[in-house]
Write a structure and sequence with these properties.
The protein is built from four helices and eight strands. By secondary structure, it is of the alpha/beta class. It has one domain (10-153): Rossmann fold (3-Layer(aba) Sandwich). A six-stranded mixed sheet has the order 4-3-2-5-6-7, with helices on both faces. A two-stranded parallel ribbon has the order 1-8. Helix 4 links the parallel strand 5 and strand 6 (122-128). It is globular and about 65 Å long. The structure holds 1-O-pyrophosphono-5-O-phosphono-alpha-D-ribofuranose, hypoxanthine and magnesium ion. Residues 104, 106, 148-149 line the site of hypoxanthine.
């Protein structure tokens, strides 16, 4: 018998679960936009935000979709985030009416940077950890800070040993 499962503190999200949670996020945002409840665009933060952004735009019938690319650098002990591709400036303005979507917020650094650029945008993530929670306006599921979320695009089906092992 093993006394510790290898995936303890790991939150493994299947495609089905991700689809359900991203749909739940869309439904929560429905009718909450500033223009008669409407949102004018969805912007996905690459790359993790692309899948939930597609699901949200489909559910809410938002046809205008753009992306913002943020690259995180590890330099000694500092982690610095940098925007490497911006969405269309005329679309964004100060972010009013725009839904900015990411898969999760962890430390909050990514959203903090994007928020500075588009302070009036609405920030939505599927998952959130406590440190970054204040950076996100709407999310579906919170996990503890020491949990690592594994997304379906980073995983594959593979054989696992029986719980009791083999002879
Ligand atoms: O709240 P933070 O601490 O900033 O972390 C959250 C960000 O980190 C991950 O993206 P990553 O930068 O790994 O790039 P990717 O989406 O291209 O995988 C995740 O998709 C979020 O965008
Ligand atoms: O928990 C996580 N899972 C995947 N990517 C991440 N990037 C920051 N935190 C995480
Ligand atoms: Mg990301």
């Amino acid at each position: 018998m093993v006394d510790r499962l290898p995936h303890e503190k790991g939150f493994h999200v299947s495609w089905d679960q991700l689809h359900r949670d991203a749909r739940a996020l869309a439904w929560r945002l429905d009718g909450k936009g500033p223009d008669n409840g409407q949102w004018k665009a969805v912007v996905g933060i690459t790359r993790g935000g692309l899948v939930p952004a597609a699901i949200v735009s489909r559910e809410l019938d938002i046809r205008v979709v753009d992306t913002i690319s943020v690259k995180s650098y590890s330099h000694q002990t500092q982690k610095e985030a940098l925007v490497t591709k911006e969405p269309q400036a005329e679309l964004m303005g100060d972010g009013e009416g725009v839904l900015i979507v990411d898969d999760l917020v962890d430390s909050g650094k990514t959203l903090e940077l994007v928020r500075k650029l588009y302070p009036k945008a609405h920030f939505a993530t599927v998952y959130a950890k406590p440190k970054g929670r204040e950076q996100v306006d709407t999310f579906i599921t919170e996990v503890s800070q020491d949990t690592w979320i594994f997304f379906p695009w980073d995983m594959a089906l593979q054989y696992v040993q029986p719980y009791r092992g083999t002879d």
